[in-house]
Amino acid sequence: MNISLRQLKAFLGVAESANFTKTAQHLHLSQAGLSATIRELESQLNTRLFERTTRAVVLTEAGRVFLPTAALIARELSDAALRLRDMERQDIATLRVGFTPLMASAIVPDTLLRFAATHPQVEVEVVDGSPVEIQQAVENGGLDAAFGAFFAKVSGLRREAIIPSHLAAVYASDRTAHAADTGSGDMPWQALNDQPLICLTPESPVQSLTEEALFRHKLNIARRTTVQHLETAIAMAEKGFGIAIIPSFAQSACLRYAVHCRPLVPAVSFDFYVITRAGAVPSPTLTAFVTTFEQVVAELPKPSAG
């Protein structure tokens, strides 16, 4: 059995309010996240804790028996955490941040080096994962912040736009993308017509923007190769499997490959975000880290345009 304080707080909140929506707002969670947390707890206990109807949420008999124990454990754990926090050295801080994989490999190392030079007292823990994974970690309190393509607003999370970006085409240095392609400067979307593409998975926010643009310009795709990560798409483009569509912030990764990278026009512009829990007050440490991250991105070298 592996019951967490997060699960206990979710259970106690619903038991008190008899309302999932109100509890989710109070705990700064999405309603889906709260429901998943309650299901996890019920699975741990191997029993149902609530009866859910269209009109009300009420404790089951097992829920009523578990309630005083849950309240006691949650109170004791919270008190212990406060005592331990007071015992920590005041000159040491820990920052837990999440990134999508290409950001983690291409941008984070330089960010950490620069940040360590100005904030040597801060220990930074980095987690890389998909946008869904690191967003859930922020919701659950496992991360202080996450950086990525979080285009949809989510209840319980605060978004701050930090990196303006646009879509760009990446293709092998030894190939011409299309007869309409001039070989330098911007690339028109029409140059992709009847060309093979290297696509990201459907759940990728960047791929969603790409599909909208392909549909809007009525383009036919000769062949699709689907991959999970942006850097894989760039590597596949280098080997001639097709043209990859990437966000412009990822251009620095192209320098490791024999590829050209060109902005697509008309431009598809968007922002990358840092997300935090809506109820958390941004610490000066996190604010300084975000500023350092933005500075590193602004100074990234640009690859050849072809």
UniProtKB/TrEMBL annotation:
Q: Which UniProt keywords apply?
A: DNA-binding, Transcription, Transcription regulation
Q: Pull one GO CC term from this UniProt entry.
A: cytosol
GO molecular function (one): DNA-binding transcription factor activity
Q: Where is the HTH lysR-type domain?
A: 3-60
Q: Does the keyword Cell wall biogenesis/degradation apply?
A: no
Q: Does the keyword Transcription regulation apply?
A: yes
The entry assigns this protein to a family as follows: Belongs to the LysR transcriptional regulatory family.
| Protein's UniProt name | DNA-binding transcriptional LysR family regulator
Which organism encodes this protein? Answer: Pigmentiphaga litoralis
